Amino acid sequence: MANGMEKIALFIDGANLYSATKSLGFDIDYKRLLKDFQGRGYVLRAFYYTTLVEDTEYSSIRPLLDWLDYNGYSVVTKPAREFTDSQGRRRVRGNMDIELAVNAMELADHVDHIVIFSGDGDFRSLVEAVQRKGVRVTVVSSIHTQPPMIADELRRQADVFLDLVDLQARVGRDPADRSGRMQETPRFLERRTPAPSSDDDTADA
């Protein structure tokens, strides 16, 4: 590592990022994303968080997680809890906020810059706590969705806000690029992706 190179850690809220990019009409190329941030400094860790439903759909997300695991990401998962709501609909409960926050606080003393890929307003307190340790925080989400994916309080707290629209040319996946097939997000996330709010009654897979 070159002297003076900024040490960076990436924290990706998988469901929140997928929801934002789906609304914007593009897919993330995770290889390009990691390379882009490696060009900005020394990436100490790149975490990807998701919950898993332990049924037949589990196998559909495994190729994505395996690809990430073998290509420079630390994948953090936990089982989601299923239940039936008052209308008889199958719902999934679970999020990875605590896991992300714990990892961020653990690494805060070892990095100069933390990048959080999420618009969830619940992370405002985490951002503030990390900033008190002298770490710069960038939040990556979007104001170009309807409604905006980024919570206003989180955007205000961050040192830097990066809109996914501005990153698309550098980290978006070319639809014609078949090499990115293993990075595709499974279709089941489309029905279970949460809104920008931190409602714990929806999936955070």
Automatic annotation (TrEMBL):
<dbReference type="InterPro" id="IPR021139">
    <property type="entry name" value="NYN"/>
</dbReference>
<dbReference type="InterPro" id="IPR047140">
    <property type="entry name" value="LabA"/>
</dbReference>
<dbReference type="GO" id="GO:0004540">
    <property type="term" value="F:RNA nuclease activity"/>
</dbReference>
<feature type="region of interest" description="Disordered">
    <location>
        <begin position="174"/>
        <end position="205"/>
    </location>
</feature>
<protein>
    <submittedName>
        <fullName>Uncharacterized conserved protein, LabA/DUF88 family</fullName>
    </submittedName>
</protein>
<dbReference type="Pfam" id="PF01936">
    <property type="entry name" value="NYN"/>
</dbReference>
<feature type="domain" description="NYN">
    <location>
        <begin position="7"/>
        <end position="164"/>
    </location>
</feature>
